[in-house]
Design brief:
By secondary structure, the chain is mainly beta. It is 0% helix and 60% strand. The protein has no helices and 27 strands. The radius of gyration is 19 Å and the shape is globular.
Length: 267
């Protein structure tokens, strides 16, 4: 069976520990983890019976152990691809589901005050919406997802304002080619997006693209092509000191390999 596994790197010993199996029931994939205080919360997609649902478990720093598997979605429709973020002391969870008759982005929140999860809330209802990506920018929540609305898959976006306690309108961020594998990153006060795009219909010409939101101008910049060689997939980005590091998978020649580039001294 497909299971979620885990291992840790110890800063004290500067070495990796043993592999630990965290699930042993059903078909499990798409793990997403985040820290909540000193604990670790894990979310994933699991099929146990007839449906795909979002499941969850927590690692307690106090006890040094993992808790039980907890099922977070129970609708008769399937639920896929969790994304999660901490907002204050709470946890906000996002996923995609066709349960309403069309693929949409759904959401629920864990309240630290009550120690419980709220109801499932549908956030989109147009086109085929899936693959949510979420991050916090200041006290607000920024949500991105892929949507097919009349053709190719494009990146869409909406924001939750802590001041008004409401979601804003949906904004389309790309309109060229077929787009996917989105990564969002906070860089100082700005937001950077990286994704894979196919812009000539050729499956052997997937490239990594990028655009930035400027907090100073409160606007999105133009799209920038970052690769022009090989077949490129699965970008991952992070900040390291004042630099931005980008990693991705690329087929160049006869092999798939990991590639990397840096933007130095930006932050």
């Amino acid at each position: 069976t497909w299971s979620i596994w885990h291992k840790r790197d110890s800063a004290a010993s500067q070495s990796w520990g043993t592999e630990i199996q965290l699930t042993d029931t059903g078909v499990n994939y798409n793990p997403v983890a985040l820290t909540v205080g000193s604990d670790v919360w894990l979310f994933w997609t699991s099929r146990r019976g007839d449906n795909w649902d979002i499941w969850h478990k927590r690692y307690s720093a106090a006890s040094g152990s993992w808790g039980n598997d907890i099922q977070l979605t129970t609708d008769s429709g399937n639920d896929y691809g969790p994304a999660a973020v901490t907002v204050g002391g709470d946890v906000w969870l996002f996923w995609s589901s066709p349960r309403s008759g069309t693929w949409a982005i759904w959401h629920k929140r864990y309240s630290a005050a009550s120690g419980s999860w709220g109801n499932d809330i549908q956030l989109t209802n147009t086109g085929r919406d899936d693959t949510p990506v979420v991050l916090t920018v200041g006290t607000n929540v920024w949500l991105f997802w892929m949507s097919q609305r009349g053709g190719n898959s494009n990146i869409w976006h909406k924001r939750y304002s802590a001041a008004s306690q409401s979601w804003g309108t949906e904004i389309q961020l790309t309109d060229t080619g077929a787009n996917g594998m989105l990564v969002a990153l906070s860089v100082g006060a700005d937001v950077w997006l990286f994704w894979v795009s196919r812009r000539d219909g050729d499956r052997d010409n997937n490239t990594i693209w990028h655009k930035r939101y400027s907090a100073a101008s409160q606007s999105w910049g133009t799209e920038i092509q970052l690769t022009d060689t090989g077949v490129n997939y699965n970008p991952v980005a992070l900040t390291v000191g004042s630099d931005v590091w980008l990693f991705w998978t690329s087929f160049r020649g006869d092999n798939w390999n990991i590639w990397h580039k840096q933007l130095l001294g930006f932050i």
